[in-house]
Design goal:
three-stranded mixed beta sheet; 3 helices
Amino acid sequence: MVGNNFSPCASRGFNTPGIYPINFFVLNPYLFGGTSPAGASLGGGSGSGPPNASFLSDNSFSNYNALQIEARKRFSRGLTLDVHYAWSHSLTDRYNKNVDNSSNFTTLRYRAMDRGPSPFDLRHVLQAYGTYSLPIGKGRALSVNDPVLDNIAGSWTVGSIFRVQTGLPFRLSSGQLTVNQQDSGLAARVTASQLQSDVGVFKSGNPYVYFINPQVIGPDGRANRAYLGPASTAGQFGSVIYLYGPHYISDDLSIAKLFPIIGERLHAEFRAEMVNAFNHPIFQVPTGGTFGVNAINVTATNFGRATQLTSVPRQVQFRVRFVF
């Protein structure tokens, strides 16, 4: 790359002039990979690694803006209902979930390169929960006078917690730490909005499930170079691309019934609760779990593969309580 002007290259047989100056990639390549003149790493280490000096500050930013709407129906005619909706956007230049971690800027010459969605950027969230007492049974709209029939068909209440939201953001990576020991960016042949339209849940039957359209994936499992690839032009940053994962839907249901034991003084309540009632799987983009923000490597042979679930399998719980 830099040829015989740089002794580590010349000593390995590269004895023709290179096409780049020796300080094109590293400001002082004679220090990189060795020790400082004093024999110790400038970062305070043993001197065996690249010398470095870090400056720790809180010179970063984040913001959150949202429109929140709430509609509430107080209990009447057996129904109570709450509906909440949030339309929001959260931006930051520190893509990190863990509050006690530090991270470097891509370059101090252009801080805006790190500006992007925060890991918590949920653009749309709709949640509704409520209960409805069926109008069948003693003292209800459709009164049942037969005690046996009332014990079977009367006094039932159904409830639900429903949630739908857009996916969380994730960052694409070239897998090549060639810029300040950080990712060099991507050479994208399509726009981010075109890539976003290819995000979803794709069951190929082979037996993997993908969070991105298989046509974006090449035969070797890496990203199809017709769409994405690592940045390969020396001295140029590639594109920084954030996408949003598949949307999230969950619905929990409950049914309950009161059985009179001693008139109005003592009742037994039977309740069945179903978490993820319809057993709907939510496939997760593998960014590392609760505190992880691992970038998705487009050069990995498992690119686009969903390996984890956000949702739990359907769970059914039964319980009885006494009301007096």
